[in-house]
Amino acid sequence: MKLKLFFIAAIAPFVAAAQTPNFTITGKIGNLNAPAKIYIDYSSEGEGKSDSATLVNGVFKFAGNIAGIASSRMTLSREGIRDKEIYATGTGDVVYVNFGKEHIQIKSADSLYNAKWTGSMVYQEMKDFEKEVGPTVMTVHHNANVQLKMATPEQQKDTAYFKILDKKVQALRISRGEKMLEFARDNPASWFALQAISESVSGYNVKPAIALPLFNNLSAPLRLSHTGQGLYKILNSHTVTAVGAKAPEFSQNDVNGKLVSLSDFKGKYVLVEFWASWCSPCRAESPNLLKQYALFRERGFEILGVSVDHDKAKWLEAIKKDGLTWPQVSDLKGWESDARKVYGISGVPANFLISPDGKILGSHLIGEALNKKLGELFN
Question: Domains of the chain by range and CATH?
């Protein structure tokens, strides 16, 4: 008995230490009270978590443990409805930020979007990164939508005004794409160099032949991190998922818990569609997929939806709300989805069109690109 008690006493400090949060985010947004809530979704080294807090006189606090630098999305909803803000027409009170094992304070008189952050070196490094390469795509679209919302009724009806605004958006996006690779080359020890390469590949279709040498030039800790190894797999996945290659097999449970395999659809043209309930561009593509499914299903076309959700309720809700009628599967591991890793995708929506004999015919076919390809196959 004494030995057992000694053992328990000996490990107690380590248990306590493990439970001590290594980051805190304390904030104050005006004088908001319930039902106003702050939501946070964050991931670090492959582990994702979500949390929420009701504001009391504007004050809230988050605490937790992360393995390294975290990527996060924070949402302020005055009505306490998280998804309403996320899926708002580009003007929701949502921010995408990075932070580390730090004790952070954020403060604003009116909104989360305008909040000032202090106490985070990682956040400051993120802002320095954005100064060099330009604002994120989310920020560019948010600002454009706010500008459009504030425009006069005459401007909102003026197609020339829309064209000027769109030209600014596209110019900022192109500029960021050009500068990110330069940043990665010049800052091989920065975590944001790793992010720059990843975004270049997923958002700007930079080829592995260009991105891989930049990746290999990164510091060893970055290359060997969970994020780095995931990017390495993606940079080399082009050989696995190249046009003409045999589509990698995978199996996941459907909405009823039944195991479904890609090979179950042999003999049909199959669009393996990676998506998520929280992904606005994915949801925006649903009407087009419904149309194509109705046109070609009877002629041998099938869609296999593969969700990278981790919340089953939200996954099922999105399927119902969007009226998706094709088979849906998910291992509910979020971004750690086994199928996502096998196919090496770095963002959603993403898809692969597979022939009846299991060969990859094309990838990342969105909107008219998909419609044209299906038209060629069936007409």
Answer: 18-126 (2.60.40), 146-238 (no CATH), 251-378 (3.40.30.10)
